[in-house]
Amino acid sequence: MKKRIHSEFMGIAAVAIIATLLLSVWVFYDLFQDQVLDDLKTYADVIKGTVSQEELSENSSFYEEADIRFTLIQADGSVIYDSKADSDAMENHAERPEIAQAMEKGSAEAIRKSETMDRSTFYYALKLDDGRILRVSKEAGSILSILKSALPVIGVIALLIFGVCVVLARILTRSFLYPIEQMAGDMENILDIETYPELMPFITMIHSQHQDIMENAKMRQEFTANVSHELKTPLTAISGYSELIKTGMASDEDVRRFAGEIHKNSSRLLTLINDIIRLSQLDAESMDVAYTKLNLYQMAEACVDMLQITAEKHDVMLRLEGGPCTICANRQMIDELIYNLCDNAIRYNNPGGSVIVKVYMEKEETVLSVWDTGIGIPKVYQKRIFERFYRVDKSRSKSTGGTGLGLAIVKHIVSQHHARLELESEEGIGTKICVYFPKDSKME
Predict the structure, then answer these.
(1) Start-end of H helices in 284-427
(2) Residue 251: is it exposed, middle or buried by C-beta count within 10 angstroms (0-12/13-18/19+)?
């Protein structure tokens, strides 16, 4: 990158130098032309006082030293006198542009280039009081000849300027890339780097992305450690009980009890594996998920009916309130969302408690709320309960068969549907979780 920026600076500098020098030559030559024509006008004004052939001949040596040629022309275009040629042999000048224009306007100027383009002749014609035309001319180098003669000097100047540009380009490249190199070497303290204002939005974005990456890496590391721990616990129990049965050390009564423990832990293990697989699927879920119009009340009703046996087992009253409401969503995900919210509300409830599931409209949103009279969540833990494997009461969760992934799955599904989630909970009183779906929203 550094070499590329440096080479681009060099290219820009080279083009700028060449363009500047060529433009300077062109401007100089334009000024040179104006100066030559001004000199010719001055000579014409001086000469017009001595316009007899004899006087012109006497002063011809002076004008020759100044490389000035003057010609005296009759009103009909015939040449009376020329300081550098035989006037009798010269053709009629009436058609010459500067002569014709001077006849009409009183004065005229013209520049004619030679065929080789190495020289140019400058003309200034002045109409005298008696009707004759005095033309003064001078040969000078063309722009090409001036450029050729100045080329060595121009080359030296260009090389000197280019050398300065090389040094400045290196300094600018280094100063431009220095903050970026610092960022690459110290991502943790990226916001403390001294830089120019234009780079700050980029630095802020990089810092934010770096923080997200680090957070995701930390979450994945914790997830891997938690998965290992959660799988190890039931597997250890299964291995221990089966080994006791295998060695024959257990009585018939113990065998039945051990078999029950093995069954309970294997069921918990299977549930845990299914939740981990599902959570991984949600992590990699693409945006082409199939969405359809769903009656959220009917889906909640089916889930409540299915969980009635579980609720009775935990001595919890489960009921549904509200009415039909339509959302645009994925059926499987909404089934999982309702099930996990209701299952959590039952598992973390108190004997004789209740769970109320309600579906209703609030302004432009469809709301699913699950309210329980359970143990509640202390405020200090409320921000963390949607993290994977996070449990407020770990012993209670394991005793009721919870995996600690239910609310993490809920969070993914809510995010996938561009919905929002609100939690209200008070320790010892209960918890209320509300999911707000945009009304008849179209998923992107």
Answers:
(1) 296-306, 308-313, 331-347, 394-399, 406-416
(2) exposed
Q: How far apart are CA 26 and CA 32, in angstroms?
A: 10
Quickly name the fold that domain 2-146 has. Answer: Beta-Lactamase (3.30.450)
- Taking residues 250-276, report their average pLDDT: 79
From first CA to last CA, the distance across the chain in angstroms is 38
Does residue 73 have a pLDDT over 60? yes
Amino acid 366: pLDDT: 94
CB neighbour burial string for 71-109, b if at least 16 within 10 angstroms, e if fewer: bbbeeebebbbbbeeeeeeeeebeebebbbbbbeeeebb
| Contact residues for 410 (Cβ-Cβ < 8 A; gap 6+) | 336, 337, 340, 341, 386, 421, 435
Nearest CA to 417 among 292, 335, 328? 328
Structure tokens at 359: 């579906």
Q: Considering the domain 292-438, what is its CATH architecture?
A: 2-Layer Sandwich (3.30)
Q: Is the dihedral of CA 54, 56, 59, 61 positive or negative?
A: negative
- Tens digits of residue pLDDT in 237-254: 888 888 888 887 777 788
Domain edges within the chain: 2-146, 210-283, 292-438
What's the pLDDT score for residue 209? 78
pLDDT mean over 196-220 = 75
Q: Provide the whole-model pTM.
A: 0.49
Q: From edge to edge, which strands make up the β-sheet containing 365-372? A: 317-322, 354-362, 365-372, 430-438, 420-426
User: Which CATH class for the 210-283 domain?
Assistant: mainly alpha
Question: Considering just the CA atoms, what is the radius of gyration of the chain in Å?
Answer: 49
Query: What are 10's two structure tokens?
Result: 């060099």
Query: Where is 435: in which H helix or E strand?
Result: strand 430-438
Rounded to whole angstroms, the Cα distance separating 266 from 234 reads 7
Give me the mean pLDDT over the 201-224 stretch. Answer: 75
List beta partners, residue 425. 431
Residues in the chain, total: 444
Tell the residue number behind the tokens 């295998």, with chain if given.
246
- Range picked from 31-35, 179-183, 366-370 for highest mean pLDDT: 366-370
